[in-house]
């Protein structure tokens, strides 16, 4: 149990970090780490590792869930609930969800939906949102042993969160179980701490590690995405450069040779190439995805860049089928808090450290969101040019309808749902929910209902519904 019940996990980790300085030179640290559990590729590992392909329809929805503890998970669940109750001629809008990217708390909702689908929505509140994940975690600053654990790698290891996720939420499931559903492409995102780079749990990244993602536990990926530094020891993956089936992307060689290549691509190439160099990286240490990208948008943007096709991360067949795509970014971050802006003095201590962290996270997230909007516009135009370059025979070969083919009939919509967009009644209540892994049922219900109502009120959703293609 926490020594400060009213504080958030973020405040507690900062307090613990500050307190640990007093014993930093003691030499009594307890080593805390999570052993790597990922396995190497074999000669039988298939390209793509059985991840779902050709999952795009004429009408497609993509979602991105931000971090923010159980508040973020509940808000994301409200979005999925709204889509599930919006009926179409073919079913409901969850049938049109093709991609979900996520970080931190949002990964609970994303991975749960990827594993259990619409049928799992009814039990998400009880099994996940109302579960006290902090009950088995070390959080007390009154325990000297906890200070030594921080110095040794982190307060908590797999047994404090990953085991609970595995036992009570994901039931031992692996990525192979998600892929067997053949539906939504789930992209849980963590942060490669050494390379300071977003790390998505997708087959392409694992192939660069020369590892097979299929046997990897969903709970471990979600735990990595939620591994707040100091509170949790990093989740560890092992690189297997001597077990590779695939070369590095050809783009990387071009990026290395081009001094004017975008810095984001330079950083990505350097990080990914290091996984094949045992003198640089043998183990990848993963922490909370929100450290590098709290909106979970990097995975989609970088997938386009690395793949290098005009339609990525879609397939050729997807590119021919797609006509309308709605991308909803769910932002569960809270507005600035505290009264120190009303005083000449302050902030101090924990408030100062927390505010600095929040400023860095929020600023990078805003820049990422603006960049994503520009990328989405480029993606739409690139896709149209590709479609219009195809012959009618190509369209038919790729599963398109040659009879009513309109190559330029493609439109992407981008919508943001943030707490400050919720109805006033729910905005204040959701703002008050701490960033943690335990919460009251009333708080969770407010976040779910706020997210549900906010989604249904999105102008872009209404526009998508008006213009979506009717089969």
Write the layout of secondary structure elements.
Elements: H1 9-20, E1 39-40, E2 59-65, H2 69-84, E3 97-103, H3 105-116, H4 121-129, H5 144-151, H6 162-169, H7 175-181, E4 185-192, E5 197-200, H8 203-209, E6 211-212, H9 218-225, E7 235-238, H10 250-257, H11 263-274, E8 283-287, H12 298-307, H13 316-321, E9 324-331, H14 349-388, H15 392-397, E10 411-418, H16 424-431, H17 441-456, H18 459-467
Parallel strand pairs: 2-3, 2-9, 3-4, 9-10
Antiparallel strand pairs: 1-6, 4-5, 4-8, 7-8
Helix pairs in contact: 1-5, 1-14, 2-3, 2-4, 2-17, 3-7, 6-9, 10-11, 16-17
Mind explaining what this structure looks like?
By secondary structure, the chain is of the alpha/beta class. The protein contains 18 helices and 10 strands. The strands form 2 sheets. Strands 2, 3, 4, 5, 7, 8, 9 and 10 form an 8-stranded mixed sheet that branches. Helix 2 runs antiparallel to helix 4.
Low-confidence stretches: 1-7
Distance between the amino and carboxyl termini: 54 Å
SSE class = alpha/beta
Shape: globular
Major sheet summary line:
8 strands, mixed
Q: How many strand elements?
A: 10
Radius of gyration: 22 Å
Count of helical regions:
18
H/E series, N to C? HEEHEHHHHHEEHEHEHHEHHEHHEHHH
Mean pLDDT over all positions: 89
Q: What proportion strand?
A: 5-15%
Core attributes:
471 residues, alpha/beta, two-stranded antiparallel sheet, globular, disordered N terminus
In short:
The protein has helices at 9-20, 69-84, 105-116, 121-129, 144-151, 162-169, 175-181, 203-209, 218-225, 250-257, 263-274, 298-307, 316-321, 349-388, 392-397, 424-431, 441-456, 459-467, and strands at 39-40, 59-65, 97-103, 185-192, 197-200, 211-212, 235-238, 283-287, 324-331, 411-418. With 471 residues, it is α/β, with parallel strands linked by helices. The radius of gyration is 22 Å and the shape is globular.
């Amino acid at each position: 149990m926490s020594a400060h019940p009213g504080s958030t996990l973020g405040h507690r980790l900062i307090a613990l970090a500050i307190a640990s300085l007093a014993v930093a030179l003691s030499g009594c640290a307890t080593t805390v780490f999570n052993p790597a559990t990922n396995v190497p590729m074999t000669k039988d590992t298939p390209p793509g590792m059985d991840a779902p392909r050709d999952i795009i329809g004429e009408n497609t929805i993509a979602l991105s869930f931000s971090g923010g503890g159980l508040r973020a998970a509940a808000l994301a669940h409200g979005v999925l609930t709204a889509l599930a109750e919006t009926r179409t001629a073919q079913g409901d809008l969850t049938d049109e969800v093709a991609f979900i990217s996520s970080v931190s708390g949002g990964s609970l909702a994303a991975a749960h939906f990827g594993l259990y689908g619409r049928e799992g929505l009814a039990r998400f509140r009880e099994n996940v949102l109302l579960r006290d994940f902090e009950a088995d975690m070390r959080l007390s600053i009154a325990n000297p042993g906890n200070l030594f654990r921080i110095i040794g790698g982190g307060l908590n290891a797999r047994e404090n969160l990953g085991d609970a996720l595995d036992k009570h939420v994901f039931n031992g499931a692996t990525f192979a179980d998600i892929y067997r559903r053949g539906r939504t492409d789930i992209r849980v995102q963590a942060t490669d701490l050494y390379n300071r780079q977003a790390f998505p749990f997708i087959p392409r990244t694992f192939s660069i590690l020369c590892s097979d993602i299929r046997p990897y536990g969903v709970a471990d990926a979600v735990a990595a995405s939620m591994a707040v530094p100091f509170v949790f020891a990093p989740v560890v993956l092992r690189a297997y450069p001597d077990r590779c089936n695939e070369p590095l992307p050809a783009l990387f060689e071009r990026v290395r040779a081009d001094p004017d290549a975008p810095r984001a691509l330079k950083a990505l190439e350097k990080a990914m190439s290091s996984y094949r160099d045992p003198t640089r990286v043998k183990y990848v240490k993963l922490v909370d995805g929100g450290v590098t990208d709290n909106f979970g948008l990097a995975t989609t943007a970088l997938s386009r860049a690395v793949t290098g096709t005009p339609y990525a991360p879609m397939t050729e067949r997807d590119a021919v089928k797609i006509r309308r795509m709605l991308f909803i970014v769910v932002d569960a971050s809270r507005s600035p808090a505290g009264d120190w802006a009303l005083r000449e003095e302050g902030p101090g201590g924990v408030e100062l450290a927390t505010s600095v962290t929040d400023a860095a996270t929020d600023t990078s997230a805003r820049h990422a969101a603006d960049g994503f909007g520009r990328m989405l516009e480029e993606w739409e135009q690139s896709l149209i040019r590709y479609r219009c370059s195809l012959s009618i025979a190509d369209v038919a070969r790729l599963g398109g309808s040659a009879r009513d083919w309109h190559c330029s009939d493609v439109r992407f919509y981008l919508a943001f749902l943030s707490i400050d967009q919720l109805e006033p009644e729910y905005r204040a209540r959701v703002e008050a929910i701490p960033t943690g892994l335990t919460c009251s049922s009333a708080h969770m219900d407010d976040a779910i209902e706020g997210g549900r109502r906010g989604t249904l009120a999105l102008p872009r959703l209404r526009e998508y519904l008006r213009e979506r293609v009717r089969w």
